[in-house]
Every structure is written in structure tokens, then in C-alpha cells.
Amino acid sequence: MKSGRIGRVVQLLTTLQAGKNYSAGDLSNIFGKSRRTIFRDLKELEAIGLPFRYDQKAGGYTVDPEFFLPPIDLNLQEALSLLLLVHKARNNIQLPFKNSALLAGLKIENNLPVKIRQYCDTALKNVSTRPSPQAPASHLDRIFSQLQKALATKHVVQMKYNSLFEGRIIDVELCPCHLLYNHRAWYVLGLSSMHKGVRTFKLNRIKELNLLDKCFVEQGRFDLYEYLGRAWAMISEGRIYNIKLRFLPKVAENVTEVQWHSTQKVTRESDGSAIMELRVDGLNEISWWILGYGDQVQVLAPEALRKRIVEAATNMISINQQV
């Protein structure tokens, strides 16, 4: 929903909340929009679960005034930051319950002082965010909600999971211990009956999930950062490598302005290149990241990583020469 339309929908909510009944014609005259546009905005309210109703006897629409929050004491910066997150940034990650987030934002917006609401509406018209690529997750709300409940009540879940490693659908009993958003997708970490240890499962690969009528006892508090250790992203391989990379001047500034890893150290060279040194657990994940920089990066150490990159690049050339 675009920012201009957001402002109009908020105004529509404010009007309906006044306690009077307004027909589609009344609303059309109030907002200077066609009846078709008014019906489309009402559909938007219906889609996000706002309980407006049509009174047949009075011939108009209204919203229960008690549905909204009491007045909220937010200053301009607080209000704008919250509405920026809800209206502009919520599509940049796979946010569970997006409709609920939008409804919460509309509630807050509806209860702001008029001047602050008008300023925020104007400001948001001039702000855009470009959604990043996301893993498909058509059942995210349902899966996330079930796992959240299992985490809160310490219930074991049974799931059918499309495992890329096994190359088939596997049946797993899982004692979930953490939900994690990373690299454009949601994951659940937990003790797997099949793997006899803590494993990571991508939510969009869960084909079926059920809470079982049995609980588990948590063995101490799960520490995500201890579990991930010094992995490049999510998979620890059990061996730490001292990695040294040289990024050529064309990409050096772009690469080094980001803190990619907690152990990262950067040295800028006089020719404009940059040397990056890291201590990383495993080579698989970081190899794919290095390959993304193509001919603008050199692997100085270790030799095992350099050989892996050369082999991948050679295979890439071979595959593309066959086309």
C-alpha cells in the first residue's frame, strides 16, 4: 500500500471511529474520491483484520471506538521511526504477521496528535525502501506461530522437512530452542531426534508441522552465539582458518565499509586495495561469498581456500564454455 493511500486509509479509520455511520457516498464526498476507491480502501481494512461493520438500518459504515489504543504520548521522532518501520521496512524482511504489523501501525497513527500525524504522512511520501530478495514462505505465519508456541510451552514438534542434504523429505522430532532470521530467510534451531544433536532447519522447507502431546526439558539456556561460534554465517565446521584476502581498488571501499565478521581486520594499501584478515570456522560458506567478487579478490591464505576458489572458478569457465 503506497504512502498516499496509507494516509487516506488512516483518515478513513479516523472518520469511521467517530461513532457515526457513513455511507459509501458520504465517504466519497468527504475524501473527494470515487465510490470505487472507497470500496477498495474498505477492502484494505478488511484484509488487515480491522473490525468495521456495515449497519443495514443506518445505511452506513462504522468502527467500534474501543477497538483502538488510548492516546499515545510519542514525540515526532519516535512516531516517525515507528511508522517508517511498519509502512516502509516491514517488506524488507520476512516478517511474520505482516498484516498485524500494519494494523498496529495504523492504530498508532490514528492516535497521534494531528500535527504529528500530518508531518509523518508527508515525510513518508518521500521515503522508499527496495525489498530485498526473500526465500518464498507462503505458510510463514502458521509455521512461525506453531514454533513460537512450542518454544514457549516446551513442546516437541513433529515435522516433515525437505532436506537438501539428504535429498528427500525426512521425518524429524524436534525440541525447538531458537528462531533466527538470517540471509533472507527464517530458521529454527533445535535438538533433532534424527541427528542426535542441535540442527538448523529453514522454515520454508517445512512441509508439515504438528505439536506433539509431550514436552521436553531444556538442558541449560541455549546460547545462539556460542552455537554459531566463528562460522561465516550459520554452519560451524569445527576448524578455525586464518583467512587473508586482498580486494582490488575497484571494490575495496565497498567491501571494507561493512563489518562482515566479528574477527575482521582491514589494512588499506597505498594502491587503493585492501587486505582483509579473519579467523573463520569452516571454508564452505565464505567460499561462496568470495566467489561473488569474481576477479576483484585474491585469496592470499590459506592455501586450501585458494585451491577451492580456483577449482570453482575453473569449473565455472568450463560449464559456460559448453553453452
Please, could you describe this protein's structure?
The structure is a single chain. The protein has 323 residues and is of the alpha+beta class. It folds into three domains: 1-132, Orthogonal Bundle (Arc Repressor Mutant, subunit A); 140-228, Roll (SH3 type barrels); 240-321, Alpha-Beta Plaits, CATH 3.30.70. Helix content is 40%, strand content 25%. It contains eleven helices and eleven strands. The strands form three sheets. The chain has a five-stranded antiparallel sheet, covered by helices on one side. It has a four-stranded antiparallel sheet with strand order 9-10-8-11. A two-stranded antiparallel sheet has the order 1-2. Helix 1 crosses helix 3 and helix 4 crosses helix 6 (114-125). The longest helix has 19 residues, at 303-321. The chain is globular. The model has no long low-confidence stretch (mean pLDDT 86).
How are strands sequenced across the largest beta sheet?
6-5-4-3-7
The assigned CATH architecture of the largest domain is Orthogonal Bundle
Ranges where pLDDT stays below 50 over 5 or more residues in a row are: none
Shape: globular
Question: Structural class, please?
Answer: alpha+beta
How many separate domains make up the residues? Answer: 3
Strand content: 25-35%
What distance separates the N and C termini? Answer: 43 Å
Radius of gyration: 26 Å
Share of helical residues: 25-40%
Stated plainly, the CATH topology of the largest domain is called: Arc Repressor Mutant, subunit A
What's the total number of strands? 11
CATH class of the largest domain reads Mainly Alpha
Largest sheet: 5 strands, antiparallel
Topology order in helix (H) and strand (E) letters: HHHEEHHHHEEEEEHEHEEHEH
Q: Supply the number of helical segments.
A: 11
